[in-house]
Model the fold of this input.
Amino acid sequence: MEIVITATPESAAEMVADTCERLLKHRPEAVIGLATGSSPLPAYQEMVRRHRDGRMSFAGATAFLLDEYVGLPPGHPESYREFIRRELTDQVDLSEDRLHSPDASGPDPAGAGVRYEQQISDAGGIDLQILGIGSDGHIGFNEPSSSLGSRTRMKTLTAQTRRDNARFFGGDQDAVPRHVITQGIGTILDAGHLVMIATGSSKAGPIAAAFEGPITSMVPASALQFHPHTTVVIDEDAAVELRHAGYYREAFSNKPDWQHL
Ligand code: F6R
Done:
């Protein structure tokens, strides 16, 4: 695993945008997995800037969201599909028919997971999966106790996650849906390259638990330790609980170039 500690949240965002830019240059038809939530937002803003500058094109790419709330009507501004359209895909040249999200508002949310897995497989799998991490260590919406081999399916959010996400629903925890459809941990681990971004002191505990603690379903992000190509991009605040931060700086952060990412 590459654990890259950046001086600022802005440089973390640039590094994630660099990784995506490099992939799209090398493979314009790449399949990209997109996280929502606040962590990747600065990286998406950077990608939009680079697209406007003519540096990045998504014209040949396909995107899959990590997860979606169950029960929000289509077009709800806090549905993850609307979120990603607003923050990224409507602002770049990714065509809407190549933006995929779990069908969480249809009549059969339970079957939507199986159909989503098929769509990912039909697209040839995900090349690059961008991830955030929840305060309880979740990835996607795989909450603690999720099977480390799980596939896309419905899950129930913990009270902690609904509290954390109330900020997107006017501060009202009761307005946060209880259920979601999320790529499973097994689904996430199938992607070619996993890039997690986490910034700020609230992520320090979950980052240390996930990458320096044991692999356990109690910290779903710890499953990333199984993956042969994981890059964890964190700022100084998110690194404060890492015991081996000095080593990571020496091994990964001070390299003059980032060709290995
Ligand atoms: C969102 C997702 C979640 C978030 C996590 C962190 O698609 O899959 O795992 O990445 O809840 O959210 P933020 O970034 O808002 O702290």
Notes: The longest strand covers residues 193-198.
